[in-house]
């Protein structure tokens, strides 16, 4: 007996201030999508890891078997299943199976023991721990296996509107939080991404983003929504990644700016045939227009910009692959069709076009809240359902979003608000600077002062006098530290906490 995907529900929502569109919302589940793929394209490759491919039929049978094994182990609706999310097919399988069972999947950073990670993270009270620390997968310390199952799962007593995923924020500017997401939200966000990028079953993604990051899990979901093919592996060295691009003829890549720049710095793109690579998404960190264009030119592909956050499941804004260069490289694109975006001032009221303020987002992707942190949830989501991102930016005359900094990443010097992101952008204009991270350090006279950690381009020398060409007097750093690389967290984002700590207690201008 054939099953049908639930119908798309039509609603009318404002896209931005000046017009409205008719938009469809998906009301089904990830399980529905996997079943459809297994029925319509059983023999096509779905996920390839460590050189081994699983077809959509095999993957669906594996999900059925893994979910049945979890259920026999006592996992039920709403239970939290923590997974040590190493970049393997099994991790994809466990996370997917938990969601399809109606449980709550909690992908965790694998850079250390799972229990230790949970001890140092926001408490989520995970009842079931899936880890491969011994070399074999175990559930709560006992060996855990499954057998592929031909029969479909009984429909779980769960709703796509329930919490089915908890993702930890990166904590790059503060403490990490446990974000509760619903299936309805992230499926509709990634459905919008799939439509925006015109994805199809002919597309092949190269996976380079961690599975415990919402963008990494998002590529898994995008692959399912499009019936595409995802190739990934634990070996994330640029040469190894581009070797897989060459072998499997991958045409899509999603990554943070730092990884693209790492590929170029190591010259890996010159040692492999990556002519199949046609499109890329750059997100998750700051970059300059010049860096954007250099990446696009060197990798010979069309790069598109995007903006999001874990709390929004994650994307709410982006450029189109056929947008002109000035939009793709010079902005973060336009709000997506399934999201509303507004810019508000300190009084909470919308600001005029072109004026900076806090970016607020509303739509199906907005989180249910922070697990166990009701006060923080109320601070983030107002009574009208707007998520206050903490990011500062503006919408231009074309409706394109521009990011100028973070509310919490502001330096208050003698009463003047200075954006760390803006200072970083200016410093990166200097031809001898490869990377820059700016933070606030205490100052007895001015309150706070800028401090900059800089990475020079290979073969270049630091010329401090050049800073005066691009920075105002107020923006000039009190302290400058030269580093071989910037400290990053496990998601590849610059860890501003470590940058700040590196300057505390120091009095010298340069080191």
Please describe the structure with a list of short key phrases separated by commas or semicolons.
511 residues, alpha/beta, nine-stranded mixed beta sheet, five-stranded mixed beta sheet, 14 helices, disordered N terminus, disordered C terminus
Question: How is this structure best described in words?
Answer:
The protein is α/β, with parallel strands linked by helices. The protein has 14 helices and 28 strands. The strands form seven sheets. It has a nine-stranded mixed beta sheet with strand order 4-3-13-12-14-15-16-17-18, sandwiched between helices. A hairpin with a 2-residue loop joins strand 24 (410-413) and strand 25. It is globular, with a radius of gyration of 23 Å. The chain starts with 7 loop residues before the first strand and ends in an 8-residue tail after the last helix.
């Amino acid at each position: 007996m054939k099953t049908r995907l639930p119908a798309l529900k039509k609603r009318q929502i404002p896209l931005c201030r000046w017009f409205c569109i008719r938009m469809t919302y998906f009301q089904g589940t990830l399980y529905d999508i996997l079943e459809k793929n297994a029925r319509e394209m059983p023999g096509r490759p779905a996920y390839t890891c460590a050189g081994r491919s699983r077809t959509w039929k095999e993957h669906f049978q594996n999900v059925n078997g893994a979910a049945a094994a979890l259920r026999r182990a006592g996992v039920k609706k709403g239970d939290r299943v923590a997974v040590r999310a190493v970049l393997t097919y099994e991790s994809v399988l466990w996370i997917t199976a938990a969601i399809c069972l109606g449980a709550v999947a909690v992908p965790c950073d694998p850079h250390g023991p799972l229990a230790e990670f949970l001890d140092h993270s926001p408490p989520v009270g995970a009842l079931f721990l899936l880890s491969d620390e011994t070399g074999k997968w175990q559930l709560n310390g006992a060996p855990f296996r499954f057998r592929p199952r031909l029969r479909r799962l009984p429909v779980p007593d769960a709703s796509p509107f329930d919490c089915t995923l908890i993702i930890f924020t990166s904590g790059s500017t503060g403490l990490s939080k446990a974000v509760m997401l619903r299936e309805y939200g992230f499926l509709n966000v990634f459905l919008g991404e799939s439509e925006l990028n015109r994805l199809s079953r002919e597309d092949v993604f190269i996976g380079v983003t961690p599975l415990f990051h919402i963008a990494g899990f998002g590529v898994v979901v995008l692959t399912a929504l499009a019936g595409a093919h995802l190739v990934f592996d634990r070996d994330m060295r640029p040469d190894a990644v581009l070797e897989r691009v060459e072998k499997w003829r991958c045409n899509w890549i999603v990554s943070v700016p730092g990884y693209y720049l790492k590929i170029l710095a190591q010259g890996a793109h010159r040692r492999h045939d990556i002519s199949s690579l046609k499109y890329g998404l750059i997100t998750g960190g700051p970059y300059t227009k010049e860096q954007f264009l250099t990446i696009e030119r060197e990798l010979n592909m069309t790069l598109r910009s995007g903006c999001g956050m874990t709390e929004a499941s994650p994307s709410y804004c982006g450029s189109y692959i056929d947008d002109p260069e000035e939009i793709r490289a010079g902005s973060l694109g336009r709000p997506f069709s399934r999201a509303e975006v507004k810019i508000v001032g300190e009084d909470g009221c919308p600001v005029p076009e072109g004026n900076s303020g806090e970016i607020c987002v509303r739509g199906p992707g907005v989180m249910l809240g922070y697990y166990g942190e009701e006060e923080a949830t109320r601070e983030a989501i107002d009574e009208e359902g707007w998520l206050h991102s903490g990011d500062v930016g503006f919408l231009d005359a074309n409706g394109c979003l521009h990011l100028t900094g973070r509310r919490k990443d502001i330096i208050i010097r003698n009463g003047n608000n200075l954006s760390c992101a803006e200072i970083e952008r200016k410093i990166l204009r200097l031809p001898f600077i490869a990377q820059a991270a700016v933070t606030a350090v205490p100052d007895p006279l001015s309150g706070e002062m800028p401090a900059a950690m800089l990475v020079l381009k290979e073969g270049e020398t630091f010329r401090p006098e050049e800073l005066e060409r691009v920075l105002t007097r107020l923006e000039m750093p009190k302290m400058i530290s030269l580093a071989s690389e910037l400290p990053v967290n496990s998601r590849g984002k610059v860890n501003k906490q470590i940058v700040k700590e590196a300057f505390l207690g120091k009095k010298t201008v340069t080191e």
